[in-house]
Fold these 3 entries.
Entry 1:
Amino acid sequence: MDKHFIYIVKCKDGSLYTGYAKDIEKRIAKHNNGQGAKYTKIRRPVQLVYQEMFDTKSEALKREYEIKTFSRQKKLKLINEG
């Protein structure tokens, strides 16, 4: 069964980016090679600081959306507690 992940990376400028991936290692490598999201392309390198795993893509995407609505403070709290 496939696993689905949401993740948060910390960018070089200190900002946080939340995303979805089936293979986090490959996705982080893409971000750092400039092939990831437009947002991270100019903020490389990125560092993985948080991840969650889900059984379905639907669950993961719902959680990704939820986290993207969080304030920076709430994201930092999630990262620190995770």
Entry 2:
Amino acid sequence: MNTTKPSAGNIAIGPITRIVTAWQGISPRERRLVTIAGAVVAVGLTLSLLDWTRHERGRLDRSLPRSAAQLELVQESATEVARLRTQPPLQAPTGPALLEAAQAAAKSRGLGLTLQAGGEGLHAKGQAPFDELVTWLAAVQRDQGLRVLRMEIQQQGPQASIDAVLAGPATP
């Protein structure tokens, strides 16, 4: 272990010491110019920071109402999900009652579909407005538990012809 004391020539000089030494080595006029330049840079940085914070505050002020509305919607949805979880599951009709329920849903929408029970499920055939067909398919899936096994739709303008096989609800 080296126990010699460092001499004045090999002492490590820190960055602050170097800055103070350089500051003392320049003329008073140069010190004044460096001080003014530093003040200009500090003012510029401060103004930039203030402008940035003003801009961000405005952006956040505009986004806060949207975020609050989204939060309210999520809270309402969570309440609805909790309410629905407490209810017993709906018993979808089966057999002839399923065919009747699907026919009633089609008739209530004014769809001219022919529905027949078959080996795979319900066979739906006919022509109707495309949007109404899609709405009817979503309704029978939601209400009766029917799902599409096979479907062929050909759209001709606003009308569409459908040939589909819908499977009944799965038994647990």
Entry 3:
Amino acid sequence: MTRPSWDQYFMDITRLVATRSTCLRRQVGAILVKGRNILATGYNGVPSGITHCDVEGCLRVRLNVPSGERHELCRGLHAEQNAIIQAARHGVNIDGATLYCTTMPCIICTKMIINAGIAKVVYAEGYTDDLAREMIREAAIVVEHFNGEPGDATP
């Protein structure tokens, strides 16, 4: 039996978390890890107690909003936002944590990641957001792309 690398293990869990999403456009999962311990999880979706988009319909589709634009025109929160909020709600210190995410964070999530003190981001799929890449680089946060091979998260 071959054990998965830590990156593979955490990315597999991140993909499982994404399956909870009720977003009609994209399922995204995120987990916060420190010392090889999972601190919090998040997936993209509407706030607690609000009707899910798979029932209500997608506001972004109705308004014809292209991907990557006008993030405020959405009923849901991003997976990274939900993981950070979950940690805050439960009083979990995420300073210095690693964020594993199925998708590279957007600019809004990047600003939250910077201010939350997250030290490293490992993502599976790219996301076109030049400002997010510029700011995360300026903040000296380590960013690694994980392409699915054991131990293959690369800067």
